[in-house]
Amino acid sequence: MTQPPQPPRDPFEGPDSPDPPATSAAEGPVAPPSNVASSAPSTASATPTTAPAAAAAPPKVPFDLQEGEGVVKVARRHWAFLTVNLGKVALMGLIPIIAVIVLVQLTSGFDGTVGRVVIAVLVLWAIFWAIRGYFTWYKYQNDQWVLTNQRIVDSQRNHWFHHRMSSADLVNVEDMSVNKSGIFPTMFNYGDLLAQTAGSREKFILSGIPDPTAVLSLVDRYRDAAKRELIRGNLV
Fold first, then answer.
1. pLDDT class of 17 with cuts at 50, 70, 90
2. Residues paired with 195 in a beta bridge
3. Reduced to 3 states, what is the DSSP secondary structure of residue 28?
4. pTM above 0.85, yes or no
């Protein structure tokens, strides 16, 4: 049986496959359709995401917080206090040692029984003042004033077996003042904050704190907020 004649094929037409997409020298290759998945790996998915930063831990305080209480500021004495006190301890420990050494060298010397006794005494003297220096540092590290949104707390440790703590509610704080006098307090901007309270402890003194004027403003702001909260609570 004779097949019907086929239409003539265009000599520039390729095989039976569909025509390739047209390209232009100026425009470059045509982008693939949006519904066709690209075989190239996605760089966005390969980029690791940055983990969110962890929230800062609240400062550690030497007492338990009350319900709804949060720490606003923890203050210690200015570092100049520690420097001056450690300098006094060092001078009081070293000057006698140097004086005794010079005196013994100019007289009998360290040979013999007298010299050994003097050396033993000097060693004990040095150990005593080294211990005094350690507890001077220990007292500085553990002498803290804590401001919360409810109260002011004064916590003090003089040694391992001592802890004294007192507090005053912010609503009981009446008048506040700053005392900053002397060359070093003026140079290094530290001083005392005196708070007059209506409680059993009439004066609450924060001694030698850095930038006492800024601390006064902070206490004043939270004191006013605590009083407004108290008034709202009474009206409800």
1. very low
2. 176, 204
3. strand
4. no
